[in-house]
Automatic annotation (TrEMBL):
One of its GO terms (molecular function) is nucleic acid binding. It comes from the Bacteria. Belongs to the UPF0102 family. PANTHER family: UPF0102 PROTEIN YRAN. Gene3D superfamilies: 3.40.1350.10. InterPro entries: Restrct_endonuc-II-like, tRNA_endonuc-like_dom_sf, UPF0102_YraN-like. It comes from Candidatus Kerfeldbacteria bacterium RIFCSPHIGHO2_02_FULL_42_14. This is UPF0102 protein A3B74_05340. Pfam families: UPF0102. HAMAP family: UPF0102.
Length: 121
């Protein structure tokens, strides 16, 4: 069965949201858009705001999904996270995480890799 890119992205974001909710985070917003780009999920736990980049790939022939997080993409995520931080009081800690989802096409065999505190440089 084929799905549109948007439908696959939405499915991946749902998987990621459930993953983080099971770890005590709650969703603040999905697909936070700025002129420079978009953050897939912004999750909250205590005084921590977590900006999440969700990477989804079918099969690992082309490598793991997180391998597409280039320096330029991480840098752009950093500046987007700064914009999210400006929306909240100073006592919030903002971090950038990535969740890579590798699936078999049917959505039954899913492998997740969480990459907390992405390094920008």
């Amino acid at each position: 069965m084929k799905y549109s890119t948007r439908a696959l992205g939405d499915w991946g974001e749902q998987v990621a949201q459930r993953y983080f909710e099971r770890r005590g985070f709650r969703l603040w917003k999905k697909n936070v858009r700025f002129r420079e780009g978009e953050i897939d999920l912004v999750m909250m736990k205590g005084n921590t705001l977590m900006c999440v980049e969700v990477k989804l790939r079918r099969g690992n022939i082309a490598g793991w999904p997180e391998e597409s997080l280039t320096y330029h993409k991480r840098r752009r995520l950093y500046f987007l996270a700064l914009q999210v931080a400006r929306m909240f009081p100073r006592w919030y800690v903002v971090r950038i995480d990535a969740l890579s989802i590798l699936y078999d096409g049917a959505g039954r065999n899913i492998r997740l890799r969480h990459h907390p505190h992405l390094r920008i440089i």
